[in-house]
Amino acid sequence: MAQFEEVSKQSSLHPKPAGLVLQYGTAGFRTNSKHLDHIMFRVGLLAVLRSKKTKATIGIMVTASHNPEEDNGVKLVDPMGEMLAATWESYATTLANAEQEELISALNEIIEKEGIDKSQEASVFVGKDTRSSSASLSQAVLDGVHALGGHSKDYGLVTTPQLHYMVCCENTQGKYGDATVEGYYKKLCQAFTQLIENASNRTDDQKHICVDGANGIGALKLREMMSHLNKGLLVTIFNDGSKGKLNHQCGADFVKVQQKPPTGIEVHPGDRCCSFDGDADRIVYYFADSQQVFHLLDGDKIATLISTFLKELLIQAGLNLRIAVVQTAYANGSSTHYLENTMNVTVRCTKTGVKHLHHAALEFDVGVYFEANGHGTVLFSKAAEDKIQQLAQDSSIDDERKRAALMLQSTINVINQTVGDALSDMLLIEAILAIRGMTVEQWDRIYTDLPNRQLKVKVSDRRVIDTTDAERRAVSPAGLQDAIDGLVKNYREARSFVRPSGTEDVVRVYAEADTQESADALAHEVSLAVY
Ligand code: NG1
Ligand code: ZN
Fold this sequence. Notes:
By secondary structure, the chain is of the alpha/beta class. It has helices at residues 2-11, 37-54, 86-97, 103-114, 134-147, 160-171, 181-196, 204-207, 217-226, 252-258, 299-317, 333-342, 354-361, 382-393, 399-414, 422-436, 440-444, 480-488, 516-530; strands at 29-32, 58-62, 71-77, 123-128, 151-157, 208-212, 234-238, 273-276, 283-288, 294-297, 323-328, 346-350, 366-370, 376-380, 452-457, 466-468, 473-476, 495-500, 507-512. It has 4 domains: 2-157, Alpha-D-Glucose-1,6-Bisphosphate, subunit A, domain 3 (Alpha-D-Glucose-1,6-Bisphosphate, Chain A, domain 3, 3-Layer(aba) Sandwich), CATH 3.40.120; 183-297, Alpha-D-Glucose-1,6-Bisphosphate, Chain A, domain 3; 299-420, Alpha-D-Glucose-1,6-Bisphosphate, Chain A, domain 3 (3-Layer(aba) Sandwich); 452-530, Alpha-D-phosphohexomutase, C-terminal domain (TATA-Binding Protein). It starts with a helix and ends with a helix. Zinc ion binds at residues 65-66, 277, 279, 281-282.
């Protein structure tokens, strides 16, 4: 077939280094950018097959998120803007690792297994972050798409969530919004403006936020978005890429892991600050109190703020919808306790990885999901959206219900339901704080985090650790869980678990307890038990 000849010809221009083996994991493919040219080309090929199979537009995002500038990576986006289906993750791995001469037969195998109609048209949207390697790597993606006869639309520099949004808009024939960056800003900013009409007399101080853009795409896109905000929010951007290096001592991951402010930003008492990560799908907030003590408001605090706001609106609107918060084992025990016992909100715990949280959130009318690291969003079921829509248009209800229904409607529109989105999450959080007249200090005081510690342990083979109960308990190697249980008993309010990382060759250890000393000691003892 002529198309396969083209693939063979083109693939020799994107040769695979002999012996290199990479796996499509929770973060897609991710490694040093030097090793990724052939991967990008092949992901382009796979996206064409996925598009033919689903008869829909597929997305490809070139980014390595919070990894250092030297790394890069790639992820596929499925038709509704969600992560690639799990069976196709293994096809991605097979294609990536096929030697040059096996590539066509590997493609054929997928075509046969999936019963793909080769004559079906294929359409692929491509985006990239600001890394220096992203330009040539996204060209390799486009080469792959074209080699197999697919159509492409290159969005150039966009955030990861913006690309997810475009794919969803395209496949819902514009029902979710316009598949343009301009359309994205208009939808979010209009909803934000409507929301803050419910917040009266805000001072400029209250409207002001300091944003650490991680020297990445988020800073660029935030600047673009600001022109649509009509002074509803006053933003000062730090680490905008003009001086510093991407993710270097800055960004959401740095702030969360180091529990300290990023470089390139001075946090004065009274300032409300937040950090994005390198592809702007994560956000964390922080401030310094009058004693200059640093306070972090992570994904758990964000989920609590958002779910409390939504729950109250649902009650005011008189809507009986099932709301839940989805977390992972890394969620601080205090957040889970507060949500379940004070807020009476259903809490679900899933395995680490956005796709697991997203999937669990779909089971509810309103599913708020956040990883502690700041990646998260809210999902509304079709039935919930319809009910809210109807109520917002109902002229027979009283003013309070009407106001709540309209706020719920704007909240739906400010949220990017396809994936966690720093820009969208920031607008929602800023709107909630404004509506409630709440300072970041008051938000922080909703509950107090239990002191915690995360450690990485290098082992010869991390796969010997197998877990159950949403990764909270180890089933192998034998005796490990008993050892952890024995150690945990020695501390108050303690909890600890271990799991193999999906993105690094390490075992992660997590511990929390009533004091920082206890959490540190427990984490240390558990990491010794892992060896
Ligand atoms: P691993 O390496 O599997 O722990 C990390 C993060 C996840 C998620 C993925 C990227 C922690 C503890 N883990 O996973 O939350 O962001 O990277 O998909 O932060
Ligand atoms: Zn990211």
